Amino acid sequence: MESTLNTKDFDFDLPEELIAQTPIEPRDASRLLILDKKSGEIQHRHFYDVIDYLYPGDCLILNDSRVLPARIYGIKEGTGARVEFLLLAAKGDDVWEVLAGPGKRAKPGNRFSFGDGLMTAEVLEIIEGGNRLVKFFYQGNIYSVLDQIGQMPLPPYIKKKLEDKERYQTVYSREVGSAAAPTAGLHFTKELLEKIREKGIKIGYVTLHVGLGTFRPVSVDKITDHKMHSEHYWLPQETADLINETKKNGGRVISVGTTSCRTLESVAKKEGCIKESGGFTDIFIYPGFEFQVLDGLITNFHLPESTLIMLVSALAGREHILNAYRVAVQAKYRFFSFGDAMLIQ
Known about the structure:
The protein has helices at 142-149, 190-198, 237-248, 258-271, 307-316, 318-330, and strands spanning 31-35, 42-46, 59-63, 65-67, 71-76, 82-92, 95-101, 111-114, 119-126, 132-138, 175-178, 202-208, 231-235, 253-256, 277-281, 296-300, 341-344. It is an alpha/beta fold.
């Protein structure tokens, strides 16, 4: 799947005022751009109209990962200097890989206190890339402690403080472990999901824990030189059965979000079919990729020159996507995590 495309081929002009800073209420009141992946034809609707584009026999695949309130603020023991930790990945025995700032305050052996002593920490070592391995000490369950003292690790382009932590979670989130929300799912309400089920559309779940690498810009000129970050996924047998049954009966598999898409295509590539599977994936989907599972995708509008705009371009064609983005900018759609949505079908 060699590509001659360069990173700059996925650039577009985005006025800063179109970057959504706050979520819209209610969740399903956001706008929805419908893109026909074959013709490039565009329609403008609202997200609650998505049900009109789903048909009995189709299945929706949702990522049920839940965001960890992983940004914590504390003080350095001995000096009282302020520090910020972002917990990235659990390494076992209460040791986590952490992004620390400012880094000069977090040297091996340094100790810190968070939440007025609800949790303390000691830096064990500095690892490749400058992140720290940190051991945490607390009473009870670390996730409960983080719920009390942690803040949501919102993307860097969101400057406003989030008043309600749950607004950066999908209504169906349950498996804690993401450093960022699978944002395409933020548009669904429980009521809309119930209406979708009542229409005869099946719903299945996968888990992919979103890493901060999802925001990392592509820094190479040639996209094939880009090294993808790795993320943990799980596809249960129940979801595999649902997908296989949908395909057998001629229905469509529609993924909610690029994370669900990457999970499905990773399993198909690794196993040769869809069956229960788990592990880590660093799949990179860009134009030329042959989809084995996906028929449609519900997704937000992505950053210029990002791996995610490359993924949607693989599904709908680069020209169709860049034209749809131009139209969305002209129509003042809201962009990125708290922004509006697109259905590619």
